[in-house]
Amino acid sequence: MSVRVDIDVETLKCEIKKTYAQVSTEPETEFIFPTGRAWALDLGYPPDLLARVPDGSAESFAGVANPFSLGVLEPGEHVLDLGSGAGTDSLVAAQMVGEEGSVTGVDMTPEMIAKARASADERGLRSVEFVESEAERLPFADGLFDVVISNGVIDLIPDKDAVFAELFRVLKPGGRLQVADVTIQRPVSEEGRRNIDLWTG
After folding, report:
1. Each residue of 150-164: pLDDT tens digit?
2. Fewer beta carbons below 10 Å: N end or C end of the chain?
3. What is the pTM of this model?
4. Is residue 4 part of a domain?
């Protein structure tokens, strides 16, 4: 069920981009949410795989949980990382699927995309690509991916129906979602829904 939100969506997207551009370019800043390699380890990321993620990506990790706790990716799988940020999840996923698989990270923040690409290049990973796009309009053919992973992104998007429609469109029949995200147990007040700071972090 969709909830009507009285907030300007374009303003919200600009604020989200601004926040996560800062996570990318100023990772040492203290944010209202935890970040960095130590946080990923606290969330239970495999230490051996995380150790092979370059510092450039790991320092800007801003996930909320561990999508890999829902299942290890298999060699040869084709994976979409929705809201890939600086690329930590994509680079962990690439190690799981190997050279016969592929990982495509999607993010709407140019600074995050640049950082993720630099880390993939540093590791020499040719099976990983990063695409700048919005979640509600993915630039991919139907049924392209075996798995969609996402970490702390869907909660930032007002139109959840559009996002899930796109995810199901690009998944192969029988594909799976491994989503780590924030949920709430009680309805949010009208005032809370209009508070842009609550949407961006």
Report:
1. 999 999 888 999 999
2. N
3. 0.86
4. no
One-letter identity of residue 11: T
Residue ranges making up the domain that contains 143: 9-185
111-162 pLDDT per residue, tens: 999 999 999 999 999 999 999 999 999 999 999 999 999 999 999 888 999 9
Please give the tally of structural domains in the chain. 1
- For 181-197, how does the pLDDT look when each residue is reduced to its tens digit (9 = 90+)? 987 666 655 665 555 45
Burial of residue 12 (CB within 10 Å: 0-12, 13-18, 19+) is middle
- Asked if the structure places residue 36 within a domain, the reply is yes
